[in-house]
Structure formats: C-alpha cells, structure tokens
Amino acid sequence: MEDLWPNDLAPAAVKSPLAILKEQGVALGEKTRGLVTGSVSQIPSGADPRFTYKFYIESAPLRYRYDLFMVNQPVELYPVEVLLNGDLAEELLHEERGRLMANDEEEFLEILKRIFNAEKTRKVVSALLAQVNA
C-alpha cells in the first residue's frame, strides 16, 4: 500500500480553545487554593460539525457548579463563538442572551479576560468562597 499522506503532519501552531479553557480553570483553582476551580465539559454536537464546550465555575467541597458560558469551535480551531446568558450577557453585551466572536487566539483570550473580570463572575466566585469557608 502506498502512503498518500504528507510527511509533515503536526499539531496546529496555535493553542486550542479547549487547552486555554482548561488552563484558566486550573488558574482559578490556584488563586482560590483549590476551593473554587473552572472545569470544561464537551457537549455532544449531534449533526453540528463544531466542538461545543461548557465552562463551569465549581466548588468540589460544596458539590456545586455554575454554568458560566458555552463555546462553539470549528475543527480548524478558530473562529470561536462564545455564548453568554443571563446576568453575564446583560453586563457585557446589554442583552439577555448574546454571543462574542473570536477570530484567533488573541481575541479569544481577550474575551475570556472580559468574562472572568466581569462583576457577575466575581460575585459567583466570592459567594462560593464564602460558603466553603462558612
């Protein structure tokens, strides 16, 4: 059999949205001494060819997790669609529901920074820390 594949197959040169989300989940855990962390779950996509992930803020001691946002990503990694609901969408977009688009890794990091620094996100983390320490 003749191998028709190129010899230079390699991982993409950019960091995947999933890797970035996992790193940020760990970073939150480091800031809170492991009491509150971020976690990522892949959502089955059915017929949709994109990867879909949910990012949660969670506290293992409380057995609680808060659904913060969702990400849709094509197999080529970018552009990424970030879906927001409720108070977070209202705070960042002045809408009940909304989406933000990132065309590359740099834009995705900027969107995540906005989300993680949002007042709603800070309140959720603070409230979970208060309950763990009660």
What would you say this structure looks like, in words?
With 134 residues, the protein is α+β, with helices and mostly antiparallel strands. The protein has one domain (17-132). The protein is built from 4 helices and 5 strands. The protein has a 5-stranded antiparallel β-sheet with strand order 1-2-3-4-5. Strand 2 and strand 3 form a beta hairpin. The longest helix is centred in the first third of the chain and has 15 residues, at 17-31. The radius of gyration is 17 Å and the shape is globular. It starts with 16 loop residues before the first helix and ends with a helix. The model has no long low-confidence stretch (mean pLDDT 93).
Per DSSP, the total helix count is: 4
What is the domain total for the residues? 1
Q: What's the story with the biggest beta sheet?
A: 5 strands, antiparallel
Q: Runs with pLDDT <50, length 5+?
A: none
Secondary structure layout plus pairing:
Layout: H1 17-31, E1 37-43, E2 51-59, E3 64-73, E4 80-85, H2 86-93, E5 97-102, H3 105-117, H4 119-132
Antiparallel strand pairs: 1-2, 2-3, 3-4, 4-5
Task: Summarize the entry for a quick read.
The model has no long low-confidence stretch (mean pLDDT 93). This protein has a 5-stranded antiparallel β-sheet with strand order 1-2-3-4-5.
List keywords for this structure.
28% strand; 4 helices; alpha+beta; 134 residues; 5-stranded antiparallel β-sheet; 37% helix
